[in-house]
Amino acid sequence: MDSTPRAIHSNRLQHLPIEILFEVFANVSSNEYPVLLEVSKAWHSWFADRIWNSIHVTLSAQRQILIQGADTGSSFRATTSFAVLNNLHRIRNLRVSYDALLVMMREKDVWPKTEKGEEKEEEGEGTKDRVGTGEEAHMSLGDSMAQTLSLVEAPLPHLEQLQVDFNHSESTPDKSTPLNLGPFLDILKRSLSLQSLSVKILKHCIGWEPECQAQLLMALPPSLERLTLDYEHLYPTLLSEQVHNTEERLAALSLVIEGALSQSKGRAHYKLKSLTLFGPRVNMVEDLYTNFLSKQSFPSLDELHISFRRKVDIPVPLSPCICELISKGCRQGWKTLGFKGRSRLMNSSIVAAIFDQCPTLENFRIEMCTEFNSSQVQKLLFSSPKLKRLDVCPRSLARNQSVEESLMLASDIDNDWVCLGLESFRCLIGGIPRPDVRTGRYDNEPLESDLHVSKKYTMQQSRQVQEKILA
């Protein structure tokens, strides 16, 4: 069979294994082959009683839900929206662009009007055919759509993972128009078993304000365990804009959140354990800690991951916010801390805040430029009795002589360690013999930056030496 989805037809779907991780792509692209419309039409036939593992719905550049090779008219969009929404209660893993979600909801509102005339005619013809052939009667289009309208408001008991990408300006045609989060918040409200939520704000999204984050945080379901907020793609746009009256905006936002908290009757999110922030903003971190993580109704998180995938200038006020989040964001102490990125975020104040978490720390990972030095890594090992995994790997590995201070020195490895349960140890080791490109011999002295050839001394070689020393 051809490997492209074009070879999948409705009459072959019954032969697919039920364990398959089924992803439906509704996107038009020159280099992609989305699944044909027959897949959507066949949902009721062979998989009506099954639980769908995964579905991915997005938009084309024309802001339409499309499948390659099919009609792009309103009837097709209605059919696709009908198939997605009518099976939403069977899906475990849903990834959707917000534009697609809004289009589906809009098409849902016009189903009874656009299909009313055709529905009676098709129902009559279909009944005659079924009587003549003796086939079992199936649900008519009108009854099926009526059922879908009820399913749109029904709980989603199987949805465990949800990723929403706020992408284009389809939802906000005018910059003065606030972002309509209604359909997204409605899905959160109906998701009784949601465990993981990922929200990505792309640079073309218009109208995402701190108030939107407040609405999102207030709508988190009690079953949620992992929350990811990704502002990375929005970050360059924010840096290029002049934001005025920041203190007034944050004060007004705090009032909005406090009012929402009072109206929520103190609903607790007891299961939230992991928080991941990509490209965090100052008001984002302050909002998270001041109005949510510090509340007694909020749980003690176990994991905190902060990442800057792009190299941007970190705002000066962000470091104190991160320190406060590390020091006070978890009342019982963090079990996992992770930092990754190309920007220099790890200053001395954040390093000091991390050392306060040593008694409870089990997993610690740094992959960015940091002010950690060899003695501090050794101190971390000595002060963390529960530590199981330690990764300290600067991003600018062996490309600059200045990172030598960030590496652990071989002389510190012989010191006593308290963390006897350490299972994984990855740390670049300096102060060991390595080739000098000028003489071809091995020295303990660091090489000059202009003569330091990275391929002569790589991370893998450092790990091999480390393993020999530890052995």
Question: How would you characterize the overall build of this protein?
Answer:
The chain is α/β, with parallel strands linked by helices. It contains 15 helices and 15 strands. The chain has helices spanning 37-41, 43-46, 74-86, 98-114, 116-133, 141-151, 182-190, 210-218, 235-240, 246-263, 282-293, 318-328, 348-355, 374-383, 459-470; strands at residues 52-57, 91-97, 161-166, 196-201, 226-230, 274-278, 303-308, 336-341, 363-367, 389-392, 408-409, 424-427, 429-430, 434-435, 442-443. An eleven-stranded parallel beta sheet has the order 1-2-3-4-5-6-7-8-9-10-12. A two-stranded parallel sheet has the order 11-13. Helix 12 (318-328) runs parallel beside helix 13. It is elongated. Mean pLDDT is 62; it is low at 1-50, 59-76, 110-142, 236-250, 260-268, 396-406 and 442-459.
